[in-house]
Automatic annotation (TrEMBL):
PANTHER family: 3-(3-HYDROXY-PHENYL)PROPIONATE/3-HYDROXYCINNAMIC ACID HYDROXYLASE, FAD-DEPENDENT MONOOXYGENASE. The keyword Transmembrane does not apply. This is Monooxygenase. Keywords: Monooxygenase, Oxidoreductase. The keyword Lipid biosynthesis does not apply. SUPFAM superfamilies: FAD/NAD(P)-binding domain. Residues 4-323 form the FAD-binding domain. One of its GO terms (molecular function) is monooxygenase activity. InterPro entries: FAD-bd, FAD/NAD-bd_sf, PheA/TfdB_FAD_monoxygenase.
């Protein structure tokens, strides 16, 4: 009897949950290890760009979306010094059936796990963090859990996020790229519909910069840009509302003030961008943020993770379903990195350029003033140029298998 290849996937985020499902659907033995007992986090990106929707469609999992809390985005709106600069309507000239869609990420992950559990070769360990890797000479041979139990594996796939313990234990260095900003995320619960009306609105002025959109699960999410070295301002709920209202057009400002009681405390998202020097070594492969922490521009973390998972599944399944040598697995892991790395590098470069343009607007009052004054004249041209710039950030930069 041939050896049945066993894979352990660490982390039930977008890359890990979807990869484990795909491998189990292909008939191979896979154990998904998730440190948490639930998948709720202080912040999980929920914007599926066409690139992420394409990956879900390739997986045959796009059908899950209608059954989850979701909200197609209607438009992108930019306000400078209280003056609307431009709006750009989804899908920005792309496929009308695939606009940017906000989806509750915890609900999506649970749906992936539920679908995965329908396959007999799928197993999951929840609430059991990985604390170490198992080794056979120079090869990763499995993982050890906090309770002391061990899970042997022919291949360990680390999908455990930007602070990846798997990456650290494997000694794979992360090359970090500096970010000048962090983000403060707020939730605002309200029984009344917001005037955002399905738009992702970015507001820039002398008081600062923030973005606002209606969450897939209800309420409004507000993201305030803060300098990397700046301490989180100690403002009251009313103080934050007034700061945001000062940047907002009258209708949004009035709504924020009316429902200020629903504003939650800010959660600071430390922006970390980086790229592992190597994504693999014998017996090990990194995917998603474990291999390449993404910046927040256009929510690339979830979209690139789904694309990683699809490529990995397509390259691994021909080997894993029938059993194979460690050398063959390692060769495919190298191939996966070579296939995915160029898109990630280019995407991070595009994210950095977009972030730099936003930082320039945040820092330069004269530029904001000029744009606000000239908005009626230059707004349409800026909208067309901006929409064109967004295409690679939305569509991806590589063809999926």
């Amino acid at each position: 009897m041939s050896h049945r290849t066993k894979v352990v996937v660490v982390g039930a985020g977008p890359a890990g949950a979807s990869l484990a499902l795909l491998l189990a659907r292909g008939g191979m033995a896979v154990t998904l290890v998730e440190a948490g007992t639930n998948l709720e986090r202080q912040f999980r990106g929920e914007a599926l760009m066409p690139s992420g929707l394409e990956a879900l469609a390739a997986m045959g999992l796009l059908e899950l979306i209608p059954g989850l809390p979701h909200r197609p985005l209607v438009e992108w709106r930019f306000v400078v010094n209280g003056q609307e600069l431009f709006t750009a309507t989804e899908p920005l000239g792309g496929d009308p059936s695939r606009p940017c869609t906000l989806v509750s990420q915890p609900a999506l992950l649970e749906a992936l796990l539920k679908r995965g559990s329908t396959y007999p070769s799928f197993a999951i360990e929840r609430g059991q963090p990985v604390v170490d890797l198992l080794w056979q000479q120079e090869r990763v041979a499995g993982v050890q859990l906090r309770d002391g139990s061990q899970l042997p594996a022919d291949l360990v796939v680390g999908c455990d996020g930007r602070g990846s313990l798997v990456r650290q234990k494997a000694g794979l260095a992360l090359q970090s790229s500096p970010s000048p900003i962090d983000l403060l995320w707020f939730q605002l619960a309200s029984p009344a519909a917001s005037p955002l009306a399905g738009s992702f609105t970015t507001l820039v002025g002398p008081q600062g910069v923030f973005s606002a959109f209606e969450s897939a699960s209800g309420g409004v999410q507000l993201g305030w840009v803060i300098g990397k070295s700046q301490a989180t301002p100690e403002l009251s709920r009313e103080g934050w509302i007034e700061r945001m209202a000062a940047l907002s057009p009258p209708q949004l400002a009035a709504w924020l003030r009316q429902w200020r009681g629903g504003l939650g405390a800010p959660n600071r998202l430390t922006v970390q961008v980086g790229l592992a020097e190597r994504w693999c070594q014998p017996g090990l492969l990194l995917l998603g943020d474990a291999a390449h922490p993404m910046g927040p521009v256009r929510a690339q973390g979830i979209n690139m993770a789904l694309r990683d998972a699809w490529v990995a599944a397509m390259r691994l399944l021909p080997l894993l379903s029938s059993g194979c040598s460690g050398a063959a697995l390692d060769g495919v892991a190298v191939q996966i990195e070579a296939e995915r790395r160029p898109e990630i590098i280019r995407m991070q470069t595009l994210q950095a350029a977009e972030a730099a343009r936003g930082e320039q607007l945040r820092q330069q009052g004269w530029l904001r003033g000029a744009l606000a004054i000239a908005a009626p004249l230059v707004g349409p041209a800026i909208a067309a140029h901006w929409s064109q710039q967004q295409q690679p950030l939305r569509q991806g930069l590589a063809q999926l298998p």
